């Protein structure tokens, strides 16, 4: 089953990359959106947004922009593959109520949105930063509240290492209370730190559209293996 799944998604990735994912999605998103809704609904959270730019790269690029690009590509891949998916944000903004303090309200509203989706699983997209500019590679934090969270995290990192980061030796980590969405999550939840914007070489790759699609594809494939094997 796994070999068949990889073959199918490799074809999808090659096809949609060649002709433009967003164009194709205009026709197929509505058809595919309900295929697996009785099993799992993927909620994709692009971290930060609006006035909250996230971490800043060595070239002054913003994490929020990279997060959104990867999240949009992940949404497209998932929907093409028949995985019912929802975006917490699809543009450059925070998720907040006008009468509330923006950053404080944003996290609560994201959590409320996630909890409003039946049979949800959360993948939150972020980038990393460290004072040692040599640090690089994907690492994933997972919720302590659901055993499936670690399975999703391990599947995604395994695929990413195989496809993109063969020398990556990082290990996934269980979230503590410093990661609000993961620590409070009632559903399987992971935060994918795709790479380090403090590393010049990786920061440049993270801003490349093709590499962003490859990251999104690897994340989608790892999540898809969880669906096939665990649900």
Structure description:
With 231 residues, this protein is an alpha/beta fold. It contains eight helices and six strands, in the order ααβαβαββαβαβαα. The protein has a six-stranded mixed sheet, sandwiched between helices. The longest helix is centred in the last third of the chain and has 22 residues, at 209-230.
List keywords for this structure.
about 230 residues, alpha/beta, 6 strands
Summarize the structure.
The chain is α/β, with parallel strands linked by helices. The protein contains eight helices and six strands, in the order H-H-E-H-E-H-E-E-H-E-H-E-H-H.
Look at the helices and sheets and give the structural class: alpha/beta
Element-by-element helix/strand order: HHEHEHEEHEHEHH
Strand line-up in the sheet with most strands:
2-1-3-6-4-5
Contiguous runs where pLDDT drops below 50 for at least 5 residues: 15-37
Instruction: Give the number of DSSP strands.
Output: 6
The major pleated sheet works out as: 6 strands, mixed
What does the secondary structure layout of this molecule look like, with pairings?
Blueprint: H1 2-19, H2 21-32, E1 41-46, H3 63-80, E2 85-87, H4 102-115, E3 120-128, E4 139-142, H5 147-163, E5 173-174, H6 180-184, E6 189-196, H7 200-206, H8 209-230
């Amino acid at each position: 089953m796994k070999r068949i799944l990889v073959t199918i998604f490799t074809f999808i990735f090659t096809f949609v990359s060649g002709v433009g994912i967003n164009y194709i999605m205009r026709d197929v998103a509505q058809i595919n959106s309900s295929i697996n809704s009785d099993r799992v609904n993927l909620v994709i959270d692009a971290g930060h947004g609006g006035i909250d730019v996230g971490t800043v790269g060595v070239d002054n690029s913003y994490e929020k922009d990279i997060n959104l690009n990867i999240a949009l590509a992940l949404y497209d891949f998932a929907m093409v593959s028949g995985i019912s998916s929802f975006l917490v944000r699809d543009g450059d903004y925070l998720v907040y109520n006008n009468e509330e303090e923006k950053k404080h309200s944003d996290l609560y509203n994201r959590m409320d949105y996630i909890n409003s989706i039946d049979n949800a699983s959360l993948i939150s997209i972020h980038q990393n930063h460290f004072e040692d500019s040599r640090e690089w590679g994907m690492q994933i934090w997972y919720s302590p509240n659901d055993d499936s969270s670690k399975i999703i995290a391990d599947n995604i990192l395994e695929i990413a290492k195989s496809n993109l980061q063969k020398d990556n030796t990082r290990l996934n980590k269980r979230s503590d209370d410093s990661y609000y969405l993961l620590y409070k999550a009632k559903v399987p939840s992971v935060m994918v730190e795709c790479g380090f914007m403090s590393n010049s070489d990786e920061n440049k790759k993270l801003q490349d559209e093709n590499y962003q699609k490859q990251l999104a594809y690897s994340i989608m494939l790892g999540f898809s293996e969880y669906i096939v094997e665990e649900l």
